[in-house]
């Protein structure tokens, strides 16, 4: 689901005509941006976990101690399942995790960046292959960060328009109750 919307929402013309949009249109697009941001955040957590696995594998090879990798792999379910409330981008977010479509999209995008190997193959790969895998994960992490920044910028612009409307009287709290 996220892939279908992401390019459209990230496009430079996504907010064209914002002052003429209805309140419902602004809220719908704001919700769309938030859904995509949630999916991108989930993808970022997946990428960071995979980078931790790769880094731990490389470290264990250099020290000869593989207990760190086993502990990290055992902790991954709790790392990825952390759904606690947090503060982010100046707004309070209760992270309930992405919907099934967004989770599937995130996993597919992370898998594509890994290349021909799965993260479970890390112990069998040579150092060069692991470094190449890490490089691809770092590239994806930078792409995700850029996408999230753009989504946050769009969310901020829409929020500012809503605030402007309430301050100017174009919109009222009573209008929400109808």
Structure description:
The protein has one domain. Helix 1 packs across helix 2. The chain is built from six helices and two strands. A two-stranded antiparallel ribbon has the order 1-2. With 178 residues, it is mainly α. A hairpin with a 2-residue loop joins strand 1 (86-88) and strand 2. The protein has helices at residues 2-10, 23-63, 67-81, 100-114, 127-168, 173-177, and strands at residues 86-88, 91-93. Mean pLDDT is 81; it is low at 82-97.
Explain briefly what this protein structure is.
This protein has 178 residues and is mostly helical. Helix content is 71%, strand content 3%.
Short key terms for the protein model shown above:
178 residues, mainly alpha, 71% helix, 6 helices, 2 strands
Q: Mean pLDDT, rounded to whole units?
A: 81
Trace the largest sheet across and list its strands: 1-2
Assembly state of the chains shown? single chain
Strand content: under 5%
Which sheet architecture does the biggest sheet show?
2 strands, antiparallel
| Secondary-structure element string | HHHEEHHH
Using only CA atoms, what is the Rg?
20 Å
SS class = mainly alpha
Low-confidence runs (pLDDT<50, min 5 residues)? Answer: 82-97
Q: How many domain regions?
A: 1
Q: Alpha-carbon distance between the termini?
A: 31 Å
* Tally of DSSP helical segments: 6
**Helix amount, in percent?**
over 70%
Shape: elongated
Task: Give the total of beta strands.
Answer: 2
């Amino acid at each position: 689901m996220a892939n279908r919307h992401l390019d459209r929402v990230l496009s430079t013309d996504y907010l064209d005509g914002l002052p003429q949009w209805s309140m419902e249109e602004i809220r719908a697009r704001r919700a769309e941006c938030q859904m995509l941001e949630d999916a991108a955040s989930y993808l970022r957590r997946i990428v960071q976990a995979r980078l931790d696995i790769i880094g731990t594998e490389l470290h264990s090879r250099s020290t000869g101690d593989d207990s760190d990798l086993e502990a990290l792999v055992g902790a991954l379910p709790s790392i990825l399942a952390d759904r606690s409330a947090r503060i982010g981008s100046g707004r309070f977010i209760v992270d309930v995790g992405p919907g099934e479509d967004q989770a599937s999209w995130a996993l597919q995008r992370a898998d594509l960046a890994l290349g021909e190997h799965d993260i479970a193959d890390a112990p069998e790969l040579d150092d060069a292959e692991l470094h190449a895998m890490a490089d691809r994960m770092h590239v994806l992490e930078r792409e995700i960060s850029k996408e999230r920044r753009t989504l946050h910028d769009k969310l901020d612009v829409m929020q500012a328009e809503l605030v402007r409307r309430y301050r100017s009287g174009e919109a009222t709290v009573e209008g929400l109750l109808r």
